[in-house]
Specification:
The chain is α+β, with helices and mostly antiparallel strands and 173 residues long. The chain has a single domain, classed as 3-Layer(bba) Sandwich (Chalcone isomerase), CATH 3.50.70.10. Helices cover 35% and strands 32% of the residues. It has 6 helices and 8 strands; from the N terminus they run αββαββααββββαα. The strands form 2 sheets. A 6-stranded antiparallel β-sheet has the order 1-2-3-6-7-8. A hairpin with a 2-residue loop joins β7 and β8. The protein is globular. The N terminus is likely disordered.
């Protein structure tokens, strides 16, 4: 996983979305696995970080925390971007978020074929109440704390891989 961590740091520097290592605390990391028939396929490696005092170590507290936080993902296989966007839209619906246009707006920068090693960063800025997505030097944003909660619910809410949620909290005290 170290290879992917280095790639994520390089992405943050290259895209101008540098999250100061001393300001953000890594809460955990894991691998998104998609079940295809009876086989699990690694899709992406994901790291979650939060800025400031960490909330209690539970998924609901992380979702509801109105503080700067970020997901950094590195693709572990080639995949059409539409498959990722569709999966994210399904996750919004599964978690009860009723405005699919917001998800499409946020992930509008994720286009074309995703290649192994490509990186996607999703960040929430508490001061502006804005959730942003960065991919290949492009960014898109959606305002509102409720949308941030819906986005964080993709990984900390109802999910078909609960072990990933646990991994994303594993480094919290």
């Amino acid at each position: 996983m170290r290879k992917f961590t280095c790639a994520l740091v390089a992405l943050l520097v290259a895209s101008g979305v540098l999250f100061a290592q001393e300001a953000y605390v890594k809460t955990g990391e894991g691998v998104r696995v998609k079940k295809i028939a009876f086989v699990g396929v690694n899709v992406y490696y994901i790291v979650h970080q939060m800025k400031g005092k960490l909330p209690p170590k539970n998924a609901a507290a992380i979702i509801n925390a109105d503080q700067d936080k970020v997901f950094s993902m590195s693709m572990m296989r080639d995949i059409d971007s539409q498959k990722i966007v569709n999966a994210i839209q399904e996750a919004y619906a599964l978690n009860g978020y009723g405005n699919p246009a917001h998800g499409l707006q946020l992930f509008s920068v994720v286009t074309g074929d995703l290649k192994t090693g490509d990186n996607i960063t999703i960040a929430y800025n508490a001061a502006t109440k804005t959730t942003s997505c960065y991919f290949k030097g492009k960014g898109a944003a959606v305002g509102g704390a409720e949308f941030m909660k819906a986005t964080w619910s993709i990984w900390f809410g109802k999910i078909d891989q609960p072990a990933l949620t646990q991994a994303l909290m594993a480094q919290m005290p």
